[in-house]
Structure formats: C-alpha cells, structure tokens
Amino acid sequence: MATYIPPQEQDPLDLAWMREALYMAEEALANDEVPVGCVFVKDGGAIARARNRTNEWRNATLHAELEAIDHLILSHPPPLSTITLYVTVEPCVMCASALRQVGIGRVVYGCGNDRFGGCGSVIDVNSSSRLNSHPAYIAEGGYYREEAIMLLRRFYMSQNPNAPKPKKKATRVLKTDIPPPPSLSNTPTPQSSRPSSTAPTSRRSGSIPPSSLNPTVGDHIQSGQTEGEDGERNPDTLNSVDGHVSNP
C-alpha cells in the first residue's frame, strides 16, 4: 500500500518544493500534456525540472521523471542517494523502476496512481526486496494532493481531437469533490540518506498560492493525447480512490 503523510505532518520545505513541481505540471497542462511535473533537489537546490512530453514527441517513455533523469544523469551519475524527487503524481511502474535503478534517495509525490503506481498503489517497486539494482527508497505521498488531482481532472475533461473516436464532453461537469487518501500503510518505509531540504530559491516559489491551482467548472484545454481503445482515458476513474490515472 502507498504511504501517505497526513497534512499536519508534512514538512513546509517539502511543500515548497512540491509547489515547484506543480508549476511544471501547470506548464504541461498548458501544452496539452497530461499535467505531471517534477523537480530533483540536491543540497537545497533544484538540479533538474521536467514535465510530461509524451504528446509533443509522440514518445510514451517521455514521462516527467525520465525526461529529468536524461538531463541530470551526465552531471550526477548514480547512485542518486542524496537526491530527492518531488513529483505531482506517484511514479508509474516504469518510472519507479528507473528511479530504483539510478539509486534515488527519496520520492515525494502529490496524488497516488491507482492504475499504474509503482510506489505502493499497485506495485511496490520502490521497496521490493526482489530488486537488487540499488537499495529501496522512501516514497511518500499526499503533498498538495488535491491540487494534483484537480490538474488531472482538468486535463481529462478536455476534448481529444487526436482520438480515433473522440468522445463528446461538452455536457460533462468538472467534479471538485475529492475523497480522502487511502489509509496510511502499516509497512515501515526504508530510511533515506538524503540531507535536510532547504526552501526553493526560484523567484516563482510562493508567487502562486496553492488555492489558485484549483480550477472552476468550465476550465478546459484541448488535448492532443491518444490513449486506449477509444483514444481517451475514462474521466470517471478520476473520482475513485485517489482520483486519477497515470500519465501515458
């Protein structure tokens, strides 16, 4: 089971960095991508930022985490045990495995991924003893969870002109009710070797209050995503468990 940190126990510094990841997710949304963004942090500074680019390059492997790893790996060779990843959605199985292979120290995410999650929601790639590439890493969710879910809902409310059989969504209403996260896992998580976080130095940090990330009904974008049998993800799945599905 995925591990969620209660809001009252969340470190303000972790929240500050997650806000930076949300900026990247907003950028993805503005570019017709599934809104997932991430920031890799080491010694109190961001060493890589990325967002989904699967539609832009027609490449299903270009998830935000892998896009960032491609840029930082040359200057920061594995293991990345002193680095923390902040990502708006729980890494999928593919990305969770890649993070294990590069020896990431810790992963902090927003909302869980109840269809493809690799950090406990579906498979515990981050902590499985059957993997021996690098030690297990901590994966903790719940940071700006509602904001991350609402970004995903906004995306999946949009029309998809590239779908083989586009669905009409004009009559759909953007739901704003969000169920609580799954129960906290009773399974102990591995200890991280990362140093203490420090607040982001980006001039954007804190310039947009988290509440402004919550959309109002009618906030739509045009989607270039193609996925699944009918070319789209079912937005009804956005209202179950943690309220979203994975980036394609």
Automatic annotation (TrEMBL):
CDD domains: nucleoside_deaminase (cd01285). One of its GO terms (cellular component) is nucleus. InterPro entries: APOBEC/CMP_deaminase_Zn-bd, CMP_dCMP_dom, Cytidine_deaminase-like. Residues 236-248 have a biased composition (Polar residues). Its EC number is 3.5.4.33. Residues 184-207 have a biased composition (Low complexity). It comes from the Eukaryota. Its cofactor is Zn(2+). The keyword Protein biosynthesis does not apply. Residues 160-248 are annotated as: Disordered. It catalyses: adenosine(34) in tRNA + H2O + H(+) = inosine(34) in tRNA + NH4(+). Keywords: Hydrolase, Metal-binding, tRNA processing, Zinc. One of its GO terms (molecular function) is tRNA-specific adenosine-34 deaminase activity. One of its GO terms (biological process) is tRNA wobble adenosine to inosine editing. Belongs to the cytidine and deoxycytidylate deaminase family. ADAT2 subfamily. This is tRNA(adenine(34)) deaminase. It comes from Kwoniella shandongensis.
